[in-house]
Amino acid sequence: xxxxxxxxxxxxxxxxxxxxxxxxxxxxxxxxxLDDVRVxxxxxxxxxxxxxDRADLTSLAVSEEEWEEAGRQIPDTLKExxxxxxxxIETFHASQRFxxxxxxxxxxxxxxxxxxxxxxxxxxxxxxxxxxxxxxxxLAVPARLAGCREIxxxxxxxxxxxxxxxxLYAAREAGVSKxxxxxxxxxxxxxxxxxxxxxxxxxxxxxxxxxxMAAKQLVSLRDVAIDMPAGPSxxxxxxxxxxxxxxxxxxxxxxxxxxxxxxxxxxTTSVALAEKVVQAIGEQLQALPRRxxxxxxxxxxxxVVLRNDDEIVRFTNRYAPEHLIIQTENYxxxxxxxxxxxxVFLGPYTPESAGDYAxxxxxxxxTNGYARAYSGVNLDSFxxxxxFQEITEQGIRNLGHVIEVMAANEQLDAHRHxxxxxxxxx
Length: 426
Hints:
- The protein is an alpha/beta fold.
- The chain has helices at about 10-15, 25-40, 40-50, 65-75, 75-95, 135-145, 165-175, 185-195, 210-220, 245-255, 270-285, 290-300, 310-320, 330-335, 350-355, 395-410, 415-425; strands at about 5, 105, 110-115, 120-125, 150-155, 180, 205, 225, 235-240, 265-270, 300-305, 325, 345, 385-390.
- The protein has 17 helices and 14 strands.
- It has a six-stranded parallel β-sheet with strand order 1-11-10-9-12-13, sandwiched between helices.
């Protein structure tokens, strides 16, 4: 891996680039599958399940027997770990509950907001190289806390038509209403449009490959809301000479094993530390079972040596990392200066893995620089806020003329008249 030493600021742009997904080139293929599922429903979903997941399904819905069997298949240690993570995620997300206050903006004019859960939400949990039962908790727990009445989950089955038991167990623990065996574009289509089996939802959540991302983008144009734009996962580490290079190497590798297009980035003022990290990565890499995927990710990961903390903060806020780990002596002070990041991990004993699984924060986060404008999934992601207002006779007397003047100057006479007729009645 390359160590880039003291690049001038005009060269940073090249170092800020990611391995982005070109979903536009997939749109024609993805749109054809979306259209097929919209027209042919369950029949089309089953067809694509056989084609892509090699699963010959008679029913898309997970049966009660499959739910119960899942509980018998996973060890008690994993059950307890899932329960502990669920409790921590509940505790953190419950603290985000909205309490709206009534505000009198003008005497006699009262305005307020009411938080209302999105009635039907759809959660997509990928299969592929890892069964992400942790993502079930990250999406379903806040959905249940928010009060969503229908929580629908789709995940691809294996070739035998079975869903990984840990996904089923986590889904039941988290309060999922309905679970269906469907993956990829066909799962997105089923939840966006509804089929004979799968209910139509109002908002879609969850990660996926480039086909899933393209499908979410397309259905969001007119059919259903989505959580956020997403791309390959990423981590940035800020470290100084006080950091343990073994910890940084482990953080690099834990991110890199997500996928060949993941990216890890180290920012430091110490050339010596960067060299030690490269050596530690080489040593730890040998023991990883997902070594081939990890090596591909490391090929476009970077170690950048900058001159001081000010440069590091400017670079970080331009990069806007999905995950940011700060392992410096002044980590608290540096953390206060961060404006663009999905989730920040402070101090030497706070690995990104903690947020991925069990500390309580959400791991569904904006990637590809979207942290400049997007938050990660939180309780508000499953809520909409409705504004209310009530105006008394005194209120319309106080505010009416302001409204009349503004409406008249926008040449919207009916708007003006709606106020005038009320004032004339008093």
